[in-house]
Each structure stands twice: as structure tokens, then as C-alpha cells.
Amino acid sequence: MAEEKKEEMVPVTAEYEVVDQVDDQAIIELMTGQTIQDYVYSFKQGGRTVEGLTLAGINEAANRRGGIQVEEIEYEERENSWIATAKAVDTITGSSRYGAYEQLKMSGGRPDPFAFTKAIHKAQRNAIKQLIPVPVIREVLNFYLNRKAGSGNSRAQQQIPQGGGNIAQAQKATFAIAANLSEPLEAKGITKADLWNYMKRKCGVESRNDINEMQWTQLSAELKAAETTPQLLNDLCERIKQLTAAAQESDVPATEESEDKPSTPPEEPKTEAGQSNKPPF
């Protein structure tokens, strides 16, 4: 099986193998009470970078989207494997999809005690991922790729105090992507003020100074996704318009801030040497 990209046939067997290994580990971590580490995968294959969501990432994307649930699970035991099928339903749209997976009972030349569980989880994964909208997948993918790039792993990221260099990096990334989207958004009737008010409403804050590191990272991931295709840009515009209309109906005016910098200078985070880490915008 191969995937075509720019008239070049690139084998994707390695991609399936990598995803399977990562998901096997995630299922074992889940069953043994460990903290799941990998929500995304990224590696080089055939001269390109292959990126995607693992089983944990797909479940995270489904939770963010909401309304997706598994209604049916069936399984069959064979001599050397377990076969599972699952039906996932989008309760918002009424759509449904089936997913299946066959898991071998042996792993590394010995019986796999988690073979049945792996078959069930992977069948659910294959059904659920068909119902997740592309913008949500892109948002979750970019979010966790940015976390990996910024800290090396999710656990290290969680140990970094808020207000340090990482929040400045996440904020700076969001400003840069927002600047790139400025003209495309204005062409669709979305002003810079509309965009920043949308961000504040989405984060539930009155000022950009109150947005925390995780929220900045999520915003940058959402905007980065909108840069990739016209459809995702249209989806972002629609979300902005819907949230703006909802705010207007509730008669809660949003406080406009300058699109280039906050209306009131935020407190500058200090390093241990007392030097400012304020981003240059």
C-alpha cells in the first residue's frame, strides 16, 4: 500500500508500524495506570515528515469535539488473533462509522496478555477518527507538536511554572500566525479586532494578558490549522462570526485591544538574573 504525494509514491508501511507500536504502548500504560506520554507521532519517511495523532491523540480530539460516542462493540476470538469491530456515532450530526482491527495473540514470540484489549481499543480508534472534523485534528496535532518542540515531552512542559519563557514563546507564536492571517481574514470580513475578541471570548478572559500558556498554545494551533487550507480558514471565520453573534445577543460588549500590542502593558516575566523575557511585539 502506498500514499501518493507530489507524483511520488511513498510507502506508508513504516507509518502504520510506528503508529501501532505507539498505540500498543499507550494501551499498556492505560491498563497499568501509567501516564500516557504520546499524543502525536512524527518521523521522516521517504524524504518527508509524517505526522499524525496516536490513539491517545484521537481520543483527545474526540473529547474536544464532543458528541462522539461508541455504541456497539463486537469481537471474535480466532486461533491466533482477536478481531474486534466498533460502531462510533456522532450524536450532533447523526453520522456513524465502523472500525475494525485484528490483533495477534503473540508479541515478540510470546503470548500478549493485552491482545484482546488492544483489539478493542484499536477498533474504537479506527471508528472514532473517521468522525473527527479535520480542524479539530489539526488543532490537537499542532498543539501537541508545539508542546514537544518546546519542552521535549508533555511531562516536562507541565513542570514549567506559568509566566516564564514558554508562555512568551506561545504568545509570540500566536501573534506571528495572526499577523499572517490578517489579510486573508480581512478579505472575508473579519477584522483584527474581531479575531482578538474571539480569542478572548474563547479563553473566557477580558484581556489577552490573562490568557495562560496552554490557551496561547491552543490558539496558535487553531490559527496554524487555518493557514493550511481555504476550508479550514473558512471554518475559523465561521466560528468567529458565531461567537461574535452570540456575544452581541447576550449584550456583553467586548473590550477592544490594539491588534499589535495589549492596551495595558503586561507584567514582564523576569529570569533568575532579573532580565526581561517580554516578547518583541
Give an overview in words.
- This protein is α+β, with helices and mostly antiparallel strands and 281 residues long.
- It has 2 domains: 2-132, no CATH class; 164-249, no CATH class.
- It has 9 helices and 9 strands.
- The strands form 4 sheets. Strands 5-6-7 form a 3-stranded antiparallel β-sheet. The protein has a two-stranded antiparallel ribbon with strand order 1-2.
- Helix 6 packs parallel to helix 8 (213-228) and helix 8 (213-228) crosses helix 9 (230-249).
- The longest helix has 23 residues, at 165-187.
- The radius of gyration is 22 Å and the shape is elongated.
- Mean pLDDT is 76; it is low at 1-12, 152-164 and 258-281.
Strands, total number:
9
Overall average pLDDT: 76
Uncertain stretches: 1-12, 152-164, 258-281
Compressed to H and E, one letter per element, the order equals EEHEEHEEEEEHHHHHHH
Quaternary structure state of the chains depicted: single chain
Cα-atom Rg, whole angstroms?
Answer: 22 Å
Biggest sheet architecture:
3 strands, antiparallel
Largest sheet: spatial strand order: 5-6-7
Range of helix content: 40-55%
